[in-house]
Amino acid sequence: MGIIVVRALQIWRLFISLSSHAFCRSGDSWNHFLQLNKIHALQVAGVEELETGQAIHDSLEMEFQVIKARPSFKLILGIFLLSYALTFVCISFINPIADLYANKGGMFYANTNLQTHIALHNHHLEITQQQKKKKSELDALSCSSLINDVGGKNASGGHGKGILCCDRSRYRTDVCYLRGDVRTHTETASISVHTHNHKLVQEKIRPYTRKWEQSTMNTIDEITLKTGDDNGDACQVQHDVPAIVFSTGGYTGNVYHEFNDGLIPLYITSQHLHGQVVFVILEYHNWWMTKYAEIVTQLTNYPVIDFSNDKRVHCFPEMIVGLNIHDELTVNPELMKDGKSIGDFRALLSKAYAPRLSSMPQKQSTDEEHSSSLKASGLPNVSQLAKLKLVIISRQKSREMMNQKAIVKLGEKIGFEVEILNPKRNTEMVDMFRALNSCDVMVGVHGAAMTHFLFMRPGSVFIQIVPLGTDWASATYYGQPATKLGLTYLEYKILPEESSLFAEYERNDPVLRDPDSINRKGWEETKRVYLDGQNVKPSLQRFNKTLLSAYSSVLARKYEILPSVNR
């Protein structure tokens, strides 16, 4: 494009030269006009003189007032304006064509032979910012590729050039990667990787998947990652498989967060290693390991390391610090190089609890046997089927179902076998899995215990009772993830008259009629009013329709019939 612009300037010079003999009679004023015209041409072309341009321009303008009084001024001025206009037309015509062939990554006039061809400051700044952004994105992409290739053919096995990089491009989590001679240093809460140069590079990271919640992240132990030619302490335990470092701090203790922030991200980050990985845990809790031992041992073949209390120097060929996370309680197959999904995580849960389930009492006859008996008789009689199982997740203190006993009787009247679960912190996960893995329908009021839908078989029905003010959270945290798992998801939305808040507020109060206005005041207000301050009492007439819909859905799936009896 620079060559084309030069040609346009040469055309302008030709017009000037044709009128030079007429203009030269004005003596030195030719030189003044030539300088003034040059400044204007440079400005039109999108460039600026350096420093002195404006000063020259001002002095020439003063002299121009004297020249205007001369008789030949009008003729000279006409020639000047004609050449100026032709130059403008040429450049305006050429620029769109030149843009088609321009080097978009370079400066506008990088190849011209003008003495001054500095791009406008803003344009230069924009290019610099774009280059930095592209470099940052490239660095994150390269680091992400290394993270995804952990344990692959490119692993250095502790030899070769040391690598330390961090992908900080994501909203939910930071993840760092180390390769080479990687060593843990408990005393300094650091991990180092040996390099062959003296340059020290440091990264700090809190390996927990709620990056956007600063108050929560401030409670997570920070770890320093560093490079250098001296790793300090000698290796005391040498590992020949990669390590993954993560924290079980934060909201650990809440079953939703234990799965959403920890176990599912751990699966996403480690499952492709097929157990050939060591887990290094910050803020280690014995009770957490006891509670989730069956799941953890499906992901690693090695003992877990308690980073803070194991003072030995552990050495690894590769390490990931932090966990990948996709969305609420889900695994996105498009982000997994082997296409794994939340269904595969659920299959891992089934495998994890299978040994203990096999030792528990089983039904004398299976649903499949009842189905075969039904088809053999040719009689689509619902009474011949095994009773469908309905599990109700019970709550106390807040969001309690105040007419739970009546709901149980309603379910039994429809034809369900009803089981009530009241999960506590010390409830064994295998007991929850046994009950929900064998159920056809689960009912519960919105809350962390709804996370247990992960234990249900695809095709089962999940009914979530949605209290006032929790529509978005109910759908986002549980409804949408349940659908991705393959469950039939039904919502029962509480009306103002079915909420305990109806007795506390006036009928037209925004708390009852406009919950969104309350939610816009912030999480603390939502928690105070709708989560901690509300119980529910579903209408038996309305809820009966929801249970019948769930019953019909299960029959259609399991036995390929619909109930013919009006209930």
Unreliable sequence segments: 18-69, 93-133, 364-380
Beta-strand content bin: 5-15%
* End-to-end separation: 80 Å
Assembly context of the chains:
single chain
Helix coverage percent of residues? 40-55%
The CATH class of the largest domain, by name, is Alpha Beta
**Largest sheet composition:** 10 strands, mixed
Task: Please indicate the count of domains.
Answer: 3
Number of helices: 19
* Annotated CATH architecture of the largest domain: 3-Layer(aba) Sandwich
Principal-axis shape: globular
What's the alpha carbon Rg, rounded to whole Å?
A: 36 Å
From the helix content, strand content and strand pairing, which structural class follows? alpha/beta
Notable characteristics:
about 575 residues; alpha/beta; Rossmann fold; 3 domains; ten-stranded mixed β-sheet; five-stranded parallel β-sheet; 19 helices; 15 strands; about 45% helix; about 15% strand
